[in-house]
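Following up on my earlier thread - several people asked me to post the actual chain instead of describing it. Fair enough. Here it is, all 200 residues.
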Amino acid sequence: MQITAPASGIAVHPGDQIAVTVTAPYAHALGVNAVNQVFLGADGIGFSSPQTAPYHFTFQIPADTQPGEHQLVAVGLGGGSITGVSPAILLEVERLDRPVRMVAELALRTLPGTSLSSSAQTLRLYYEYADGSRILVPQSAVSFAAAQGYVTVDASGLVTPKAPNEPVSDRIVITCLACQGVAPPAPIVMIVQALPINID
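Reply from S.P.:
Thanks for posting it. Predicted structure:
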């Protein structure tokens, strides 16, 4: 089972309706995997009513939906039980008003299960609006690169030094892929150090 439309990462707004198409290979098949009906569900948004093939939905984004990333899945029903769940696609719910700028913040990464911080730092980007509120910029909207190559930066903004036990400085360049018309922050100079951490 798969959601074939829309593409993952589609931008929507509170109050929108979107067309969703689902394919269910086992529709009308016999046996335990038979799918007779399909419904949609999205975290923080809600569910559609089940319907029979062909699986073409008009999915409502409620007016009070919180901006940010929401996962949408299709759920197959057969014989009175759930017989399959599709891979999720992302819905990027955006405010109707445009952000006025993008803000970058740094945070030390806490080691799981401890109160200790590792040498890695996380670069977080936020849209800031005219009313002062902020929303986390989706990972799919930007890319990161280390200008001098002394650190690595993954898609989530996690910055880690390559050289152990040595402080390094590098410039993190942020490139916009889909940033709602606002410019990314200027390159950010970061000084990070990989220190050995002993946990007794």
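The radius of gyration is 22 Å. That should answer part of your original question.
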